[in-house]
Amino acid sequence: MAKHYSRYDIDTVVKITGTPKAKYLEVLKLFCSTSAPNKTGCINYAMGITQHTVGSQNVKSFANVQLLLGNMGRPGGGINALRGENNVQGATDMALLFHIIPGYIDSPISNAANKDLLNFVKAVTPGAAKLPAASMAEFRAAVTAGIPNSGFKVNTSKWVVSMLKAWWGDACTPDNDFAYHYLPKRDAAKNYSHIAMFEAMHKGEIDGLFVMGSNPVVGGPNANKEQTAMTKLKWMVSVDLWLNETAEFWTYAGWERPHGGTHHMEKITPKDIQTEVFFLPACAVYEKEGTAAQTGRWVQYRWKGAEPLGESKSDLWIIDEIAKKVQGLYKGSTKPQDEPLTKMTWGYGHGEEPEPILVGKELSGYTVADKKPIAAGFGALKDDGSTACGVWVYCGQMASKADGSLDYKPMHRDNKDNSKTGLGLFSNWGWCWPVNRRIVYNRCSVQPDGVTPWPGDDDRVLIHWDATKISDPLKPEVVGSWVGDDVCDCVKTSPPDKAVPFLMRPEGTGCFFAAKASFKEGPFPEHYEPWESPVKNMMNSQAVNPATKIWEPDKLGTTDKYPFIGTTYRVVEHWQTGALTRNLPWLAELMPNMFVEISEELGRLREIKNGDKVMVSTTRGDIEAVACVTKRIKPYIIDGKEQHLVGALWQYGFKGYATGDPANRLTPHVGDANTMIPEYKAWLCDIRRA
Amino acid sequence: MARLMTNLYDVSKCTACRGCLNACKDSNQLPAVIEPFKGNYDTHGGDTNGNTFTVMRFNEHDDPVDGVRWNFLKYQCMHCIDPECMKVCPKGAYTKLEWGATFHDEEKCIGCQYCTYACPFGIPKYRKHTDTVTKCTLCYERVGEGLTPACTRTCPTGALTFGFRDELLAVAEAKAKFLRANGFPRATVYGKVELGSGTNKIYVLTDTPDKFGLPVDPKVSANTWVWQDWVQPYAGWLIPIALAGSAISFVTTRMLASKGGNHTEGGHE
């Protein structure tokens, strides 16, 4: 690693990035000072870091830096993703992604290696692929005995079977492979991410689309293409608070484009569009109940603050109704292919509104025999069908009170900070997955001997080893336990020399060298330019991340026509695609129109004055905007040459009080090699007076 | 006299999120004034209007030593200790509440707008549909109920605080001293001595007032003295003269404004 990064000396880095050397050194000096044993530093990154063709490698670099500086598992340390929305963590936990099932387990693929449950759990349990087990019983025995190089994920089969049990109840038995064959399998050759889905839609491969709380006509990359793709749908359902740009993608206003652009967009009018569009009015977050999980994995229950307006409904109500109606349509069917629906468990109360607490109970898990919540956490889950659990990482969020009623821990509201640092554990406020552990990898908060604090750092000790403590009165022979303010991130009774800090990793330790299966590229992050870049890659001969799929090679912009760097970002006055905020007059007043920001130098170069109307173009489209010529943006000096930047807000569209062209009509259909998160943050464009 | 209560605004903590602007409109139930974007984040052009009692100014400075500074400034009625608006009002619509707010009674206001010319900060604005002048009330009703002003209540960073003026002045002085020692050598307190007796809004600035578009030495229009000492006592029978006074005031204020440069324009405008 030292050899790999010796090529990245200070001068080379500033030559590539354009960061002034003195500033770069100042940042390095400050952040690296947190390597002192009595200091910690944390990296808070926002979504811009991920919106590159090297997004995953950017984050991997953070992980490497924090491991090197000793900043993991200690209060004030870590890497914290500031998500674009408040419940992105919760959505990810529920596997609102195509490559995983709930609990961050790879989703099954339609190939021989995934053909039945045994093969699937062998594939998803680290170290188990070549296990000779010929039946689930034999596999279970191997798990009990311990599979080498498996880490805590040795328990994966328990999580998978408990999930299947939660989904298919009585129809999930040892005799039918725990209903594994009901689970949808994905095509390994296909990508189901946002970009890929719209590419397929554009080719006419998709008939119908549900859009819930999303607005791709404004927020999707290459929005012109995505809007065109929607015209090829047979039907679309939009679920939102407002008739946003996506709900009204078929209108005359939706196809207006600036005059005099460099792109000829096919003139589409409503009569050309056969897509049948439905709109379901959703209520606002304050008008419904349920939990949200924040970036620190705290799950917090939120109570309703106001009644929904008009006919608007909570998304839980909408999904519950659809599920019940669809299941009703298949009632009485004896076809085996309908069994995933006919045998599906679905029961979240009998009233008009589904009860979020019953969803919470299913997520948390229960013993099948008595339907009682599993308060002990995922350690109690079984792979024999005796336990059911919707998502193992949420196991233990529900317990029973003394009177037998449900104790839903995300509802807890004790605002006492039980940390010694004042950095905030608040262990009884809401609930935190896993097992209410507030700081993961907290084994690192004490020295390897398990008792000695890092020098001068007594307050940051979250857990320590008590050699005389008996943690389980039922097992008095087991002496010694981890104790402290936080729930230990290691086996509670493992002595310090055995208690590894990175439980989920097969090695049990932090990992600089990325294993082949974990990233498409690697083993160490390497510099690549964005797909569209005004400069050559100064580190190697490969320009763009070679692991990235290039969807539209013909749309690669070059500096002869598109000489400037383009990027997108937001203003605080608008939230995401602005569907909510651009419809609120007081916020529209504060940021009323689409604008782009350029430096005074670029303004002079293109004779653009502050407040002028400008046209910005890429190979994907043109937008009109107001120019904001500002001192805050300066040209980059990259490899000794001046490079100009056009900063565009991506939050505008044709609906609401605050309007403007969506900046995403400019952005490319290309994304990170692993996540396919679009490269919103760097592309080539041209700008001129409109 | 009761102990004065005031707002402290610490620009070093302000992120210009403009939550205060929204809270103000909400609390006072003021309609949105949506104007097209003209090139500055401050979509109100740096100035209050009849339906906008508080605005946020965005001033850009490019200094060879400090680099680029983006100075935010919440701008609203300063609730002067000795307010000019009160002196020129022919109907006595302005009064000082004993805890410090400059209260404007819209019931008494006839919309003559003398105050809009007399104010050294250019704050009160005429609102056509009510034919009255409006301005920040320092949320006197909320304060009367033991609450803090709406802007202060909503401020997420603690840039706005509310309390006793003497206490907040001490806080402000200490903060300015801290800033001067920590990278902002020109940090200062504004509102303590300005206009002689000071204002009932205290600002902690990270730089000199001009860098925030504030008048360095706010001046009272000469006409105010004429008005207060000669015209107002005879206001009952001197309405024609009052109107003439208005004209003079108008012309002179404009002259003063143009002489001093247009300080409300920020940054790159």
The proportion of residues in beta strands of chain B is: 15-25%
In total, the number of strands of chain B is 10
Helix content of chain B: 25-40%
Fraction of residues in helix of chain A: 10-25%
Q: Strand count, sense and closure of the main sheet of chain B? A: 4 strands, mixed
Please, how many helices of chain B? 8
Low confidence ranges of chain B: 259-269
Separation of termini of chain B?
44 Å
Percentage of β-strand residues of chain A:
5-15%
Biggest interface, chains and residue tallies: A-B, 27 and 27 residues
Total E-strand runs of chain A: 24
Known CATH architecture of the largest domain in chain B? 2-Layer Sandwich
- The secondary-structure class of chain B comes to alpha+beta
C-alpha-based Rg of chain B, rounded: 18 Å
Biggest sheet architecture of chain A: 6 strands, mixed, barrel
CATH topology of the largest domain in chain B: Alpha-Beta Plaits
Summed over residues and divided by their number, the pLDDT of chain A gives a mean of: 95
CATH class of the largest domain in chain B: Alpha Beta
Describe the model.
The complex is a heterodimer of chains A (690) and B (269). By secondary structure, chain A is α+β, with helices and mostly antiparallel strands. Among the domains of chain A are: 4-89, 3-Layer(aba) Sandwich (Dimethylsulfoxide Reductase, domain 2); 90-188 and 337-409, no CATH class; 553-689, Barwin-like endoglucanases (Beta Barrel). Chain A has helices at 2-6, 10-17, 21-32, 55-69, 88-93, 117-124, 136-145, 156-168, 194-202, 216-219, 223-230, 315-329, 339-342, 356-364, 585-590, 600-605, and strands at residues 43-46, 79-82, 100-101, 105-106, 208-212, 235-240, 276-281, 290-293, 298-302, 366-367, 387-388, 398-400, 406-408, 431-432, 463-466, 481-484, 564-569, 595-599, 613-617, 622-630, 636-638, 641-643, 645-649, 683-689. In chain A, the strands form nine sheets. In chain A, strands 17-23-18-20-19-24 form a six-stranded mixed beta barrel. In chain A, strands 5-6-7 form a three-stranded parallel β-sheet, with no helix packed on it. In chain A, strands 8-9-14 form a three-stranded antiparallel β-sheet. Helix content of chain B is 29%, strand content 18%. A four-stranded mixed β-sheet of chain B has the order 8-1-10-9. In chain B, strands 2-3 form a two-stranded antiparallel sheet. In chain B, helix 7 packs antiparallel against helix 8 (239-259). Chain A binds chain B through residues 571-573, 585-595, 600, 610-611, 626-632, 634, 657-658, and chain B through 15, 17-18, 21-22, 25-26, 31-41, 43, 60-62, 68, 70, 267-269.
